[in-house]
Structure formats: C-alpha cells, structure tokens
Amino acid sequence: MNGPSAAGRGGTPEAATGAAAVAAPRDTDEPAATGTANARGAGTGISTATGSGADTGSGRAFGARLMAPLLLGSVLNPVNSTMIATALVAIGRDFHVGAADTAWLISAMYLASAVGQPSMGRLADRVGPRRVFVAGSLTVCAAGVIGTLAPTFAVLIVSRIVLGIGTAAAYPAAMAVLRAESRRTGRPTPRYVLGRLSLAALGSAAVGPTLGGLLAATAGWRAVFAVNVPLALLALLGALAWLPADRKDAGPGRAGSSGSLDPLGIALFAAALTCAMVFLLRLEDPRWLLLAPAGVLAGVLVWWQLRHPAPFIDLRMLARHGALVRTYLRQGLAYLVIYCVLYGFSQWLEQAYGASSFQAGLILLPMSLAAAVCSIVGARTKGIRAPLTLAAVCLALGSGVFLLLHGSGPLIALLCAGALFGIPQGLASTGNQAAVYAQAPADGVGAAAGLQRTAQYLGAITASGLIGLLYGQRATDSGLHEIALIGIVLGLLLLLLTLADRGLRPGATGAGE
Which residue intervals are annotated with compositional bias (Low complexity) in the record (predicted)? Predict the structure, then answer.
C-alpha cells in the first residue's frame, strides 16, 4: 500500500482483493479493450495502471503534487474524530461538565459528518471537486479558530459541528478528483493511489489519540482545535496550486444522477438523525418523546426517497443489494464497539487509572500501531471473509481482556489490551471497504462508499450515548467492564453475521439479492 511496488506485489485484480482493484475500472470512461488489457496486466503484476516504468504518463498524472493536498485533506476528518479522545477529561474539567456532556463533542461532529460526506460527494460532482475541497479547507480553518477561542462549552460544540462539515468535503472531493484524472488520462486510477487514501484515513485516526494527548499535555486542550488551522491552510494552498481546475463538464453527466442534491432528503435525514442522537446521548434519563418525531421524520424520509428521481439515499438500490446492506450493518456494529473502547478506554485511563493526557496517549500507541499494520495486511489479503472473521474474533477477545482490567492493574496488561484491539480496527476498515466496492452497483460506487462512512458515524454516535450512560459523570472500573460485556456480545454477533453472509464468497457481488 505504500507505493507502486506494494501494489504490484499485493495480489490480483479480483473484487475480493480490495477497494482499489474494483473501483478503478468502474470509475473510468476508457474503451472496453483498454480496461481488459489493464485487468490482464494487474493479474500478472505488471499492470500499466500501477505506476510502473512502462506507464510514465499515469505516474505523472497521479503524482505527488496531485496527491499531497488530497492526502492531507483526507486525514482531517478521521484525525479529528479520534484526536479529541484524550482531551475530553481536560475539557470537562475546564467547563465543569461530565462524561455524558463531553460526549456531545464526539457526536456533534459525527452527526455533521454523517450528513456531510454523501452531501459533499454529490456537490463535488455538481460544482466541481476543487471548489468543494477549497471550501471545505476554509471551513476547517474557521472551525479551528472557533474551537481555539471558544468561551463556553456550547460554542465548542458548534466548532465541532462546523469541523464535521468542513472535513467531510475532503474525501469525496478527492475521489472525484481521481475519477476526473482517470477520465482525462484514459487509465484507471492506480491501485496504490486509492490505497494511500485508505491508509492515510485509517492511520490518522489511529494516531489521533496519541497526538491529542501530546497536544493537550504540552499546550492545553485548545491546541487540539488550533492544529487544524495550519493543516487546513496547507491543504488549501496545495489545492490552489496543484489541483486541476474544475471544468464545466466535471460531473459524470448522468441525467438526474448526481445533478440534484435532494435538499429535502438531506434535511429530513439530518433532522431524524438529530432526534435519534439527542435521545441516545441521554440514555441515563431517556427522553422518550423524541422517538415520536424521529419515527415520523424517518417515515417521511423513506416516502420522499422512494418518490425522488435522484434520492439522497437510494433505497431501491439498497433493496436490490442485500449484501451491501449487510456490509453497512457490519461496519456500524464494528465501529460501535471500536469507538466504545477508544473513547471509553481513554477516559478510564485518566479518571480511574490516574494517567495524564500524554500518558494515556502513549498507552494507546500500541493500539494505533497495530491498527496501521493490520490495515496494510488487510488491504493485501486476497479474500474478504477471512480478515472480517478475524476482526470479529479479536473484537470479542479484546473486549474480554478489558473485562479483566482494573484501576490498579499492571501497565503491560493495558498495552496488550490496546494492541489486541488495534487488530480489528485495521482489518474491519479495509475488509468492509473491499466488500463495498465489490458489492456496489457499477454506477454507484461513490455513493455506496459515502453510506459506508455514514454507517460508521452512526456506530460512533451510538457509542457516545452508551459511554454517557455507563460512565455518567466519571469513568469507573464497572463502567469499563459493562462496555467490555457489550463488546463481547457484539463481537460474537459480528462473527455470526460474517460467517453466514453468502455475499462474502469469492466472486459474489451481492447484487440482486
């Protein structure tokens, strides 16, 4: 995944080998003969699309100048989603709020991202990816300033919402840029290019807790927000200097496909998700009345999506692709457990174990390293079912280890527990991504990938609510053990879903199920 050589050695062009191998031919407008030739080349490890010496044009087209701003912009959302984990205790202390309240900082960004990712993807197809990327970078800068200077906790939540909207633009815009470059050169996007985007997102999310702990310990928690300003400015300058200008025909040109943003569908989805999120964040004192408007809004959303010619969420497509829906379910459940542990463990380390923000970040470092290594291994695995099965097993086993932890336990146990839990982070991410690209319809890979991110964010929002319920105002051993029990149950459920899913068989696409 680290370059053309890794791509050339990594495996075959079959759908099960990874996202890039499937996405590349679907996103090009090249003649059939060219696509066939590239497929044959990939099978022998000498594909001209991998950036080898025989394809210098492709190497220049997807070179460092194009990729630098795309990679930098794409890390802003995942790194911000996890970087705040080791700053939550300090924020709560300064604003005199507990874990149930600081959970809003997590969920607010995920709510904005869950709506923003598919919305920004459609907008990039309509007005051009460069414009969307630039606008997103400016929005991230504004969010960084708001968070750094926030005088109240409510303003801090606003900054996270703005941050979610701004960072949601980069990844779909990057994919649109790569699709446009592929059409311009008449070649599929090289496998290693898409692999770098995937690794950048997962790697930045994995190192986020350690980075956040370092910033919070050395410069205060406001540095976790301030760091976004220089990063976003670098991405902005790179985009202005190196990304190709948007063309009037930059969109895919399919009538009624991505030309309509379906603003009513977006608004209904956001409203229903907001009601559900507010309910989940107060599970310790449930606001049952919120379920009524959430249900009504969801019903209206379904009715509208079935009537709209280009819906925000294509329910008919999902009904035809049962395997794709099951992949979204696996993604949501896996990240529900992952984020429960990520945020719950980091708060427990500071409040129950007595570690500082910086020490908590260091203790989480083995988890980050294991996740990064397993993401590379998972992307180079030939199948899909095997890594997803191993991820489910490790989720259950890792949760079992957390069940044995207590505030006075040995440090080595904490490091081993974190490392074990890093394995499913890497394998679940790359495995489900490969499944999405293999199971999505040929003309809807981008929208399907956006919904995969939405499923992940829904899992994170639910995790925030569970942490608030189980911890209350302070993390405790009993709260961590309850989180571990939930992880064991969901890990075993994921294992059953993975083993029973016929759509994960070699050669299966899940279409028409």
Answer: 12-25, 32-54
